[in-house]
Protein 1
Amino acid sequence: MRFHNLETTATEIKAAFDIDLCDGMKSDEVSSATLLFYRRHVYEHKGGEADEKYIAESRDNSVRPKQALHET
């Protein structure tokens, strides 16, 4: 199972275990968590450097390709 997409992960966990990972979360919280899932993937597999795929899939327009991601 891959954990770079919250929506896909939540769907698979719901189907397998009947657990809703986003239960009780507001839509802005789900959006924030979704972005963090994509960022975790970039940190883990891309050395924290944004690439075209990350930008396209996450819709994070705050970064450019090859730009290092930062958390505050």
Protein 2
Amino acid sequence: MKIKIVLSVIFATIIFVALMFLVDFFTFSDFLTNSVSTPVIFIIYGLLSLLAAAIVIVPFCFFLKDNVKILGLKSNKWHHNLLKGALLGICCIIAGLIVIYFFGNIEIQNIPVRWTFIITSFFMTALCATSEELFFRGFVQSQFMKSSKPFWVILLTSLMFVLLHIFNQDITLLSVINIFLASILLGFSFYHTKSLYFPIGLHIFWNSAQSFLGFSVSGEAEPSFWKLTLKNENIINGGNFGFEGSIICTLILLGLLAISLYSSLKAKK
């Protein structure tokens, strides 16, 4: 890889991760949580996350003499890719919930649905997922792809993606592995479709479906349509980290990666 690209991407990643930690610290600080309502905090967090990505991506693209088109946002069928990614994300989480429920590791309890919280939570999730995809797939992966093979680029980008989540609450070794596998899937889908909209759709609705169906999202509890109660914490239900801490998630991700690889190899014949 070209040393200029490598150093720029590493420096940009450090800045982006630092900004995201600052966004998290500021948004959920006592000062803000005591001053505004939770739905407003969700909106602020989402907007600041997207702003953090823009603050890093735009100047570094300029420094590397790249047009922002490199991010993969120019697509004639963007809505189709977005919808396909969204449907895949929803179906995966629903399937995971059904399997975990079948094994008797969770109980579903009715709770009052707070629609303002649900809607603003989705807004936050959508902007956060978009900012992460813009940075890691649109910027980092695209830059590394200039001078290295896709396999190594996707692996390296996924390792960097894990760094953003390594300090999440209740994180486990299995959840780290699952986040890494999920990032590989997102990276492969970006490489295969040449469009950032599929991984954006997948990321948004993978996270949103977890939240709405009662799972913690990467260790964070968010508004849901009902409450999931864990009978005990284990690798089947993912414990307090949520679905991404479960072996069911691992199997689903490995299955999707196997299907993606098979489809890619078949298309090359």
